[in-house]
Amino acid sequence: MFTSQTSSFQDSIDVEERDDFDSEEIAGYSQKIQLNCYYTIYLYQGTSLTLVDSSLPAEAEPDLRTYISRRLSKGALLGGMGNIATVELGIPEQAVGCYCCLLEQERSPEQPDADGNGYVICFMGGSEKGLNLFRLELDKYVQGLHSNLQIPELQNLETEVRPYLSQWYEESVMHIHRVVQLVQNNISFLLHAALSHIHVEVVNSDERTKADVSRFIKAASLQGLSQQDTTTASLCKAISEDTQSDLIIDCSTSPPTLTNTVSNRFCDDWIQAFLNAAERCNPFLLRQILENFKLKAIQDMNSLKRFVRQAEMSHYALFRCYQFLQGCGNGDVLLQNARAEHSDLPEACSIISVLEEFLREQPQAQA
């Protein structure tokens, strides 16, 4: 019964051995390297593109300009919406992933017809598939530049705009890698906290580390994916009533000291996959592993919901449900979420209570 479940889990955790990333992301990452990444910003007025600044080699910029002009002429760049594609540039990487976004200028009474005018921001590095994993982060990062682009003639280019653009890869892509490098084998505690909606507090650290951990927890959580907002609110309320302690990461020591740690077999099984990808300095593979982790958790949650519905009519289904919770290694998290989601269904809640009691008795029986 559980052969397919085990196989599915192994497939998801072994993403680095599959074809998803073999030619584009994994090739060349067997050793530690620094990925070449670039930025370019153009002033866009009407149908004209004017180069403002770029870190691209000079021979590659005309290729990018041609590509952007073609996209604009087709209306494929909408204001404020990032677009990701593969572009051919005259640089060693040849085919490279490119994120581009049109930031339209704010209209003024003196320029009521300024629609479409603005700046085109381009970030290049890795592959199209890899950049797509960080689309939300890239969109947010570009929007953070908007106020700086309102300065007349970009007099702040060297002091603000260029430094900001130069950091796009570190700030938008590398945060997951930095967190794994920071906590190493303790990454399972962060994964469990994210699934359980437990607050994580970072102390004695700089602001960047605090932001990195916060973004990691948000990226690893299932909020907005597996449950409705009302269910998430119910779960958070239930957790606060249970007075579960925050996970504390104290960075005053090296490595950091973690307090109030909780994990389970499901989260522990993902540790090595994260460490392997971090060792290879592959942030795109790390993000894919994180997405696979969430996908597997969601699949197991859906399986539990199905078993609970069946258990309302069959004692055998209740036993199968218990077996599933034993086998998946994530029973505490799944039951926590199931209880919140079925809080208004008394029969389902009683089944969940029985399952919780079964799982509590299991360690005692093995002792």
Which key phrases capture this entry?
about 375 residues, about 15% strand, 17 helices, single chain, alpha+beta, three-stranded mixed β-sheet
Q: What count of helical segments does DSSP give?
A: 17
Number of strands: 8
Structural class: alpha+beta
Helix content: 40-55%
Uncertain regions spanning at least 5 consecutive residues: 1-7, 16-20, 22-31, 227-231
The string of secondary-structure elements, in order, is HHEEHEEEHHHHHHEHHEEHHHHHH
C-alpha end-to-end distance: 27 Å
- Rg over CA atoms, rounded to whole Å, is 24 Å
What is the beta-strand fraction? Answer: 5-15%
Query: Order of strands across the biggest sheet?
Result: 2-1-5-4-3
Taken from the alpha-carbon principal axes, the silhouette is elongated
Q: Summarize the biggest pleated sheet.
A: 5 strands, antiparallel
Look at the structure and give the mean pLDDT. 83
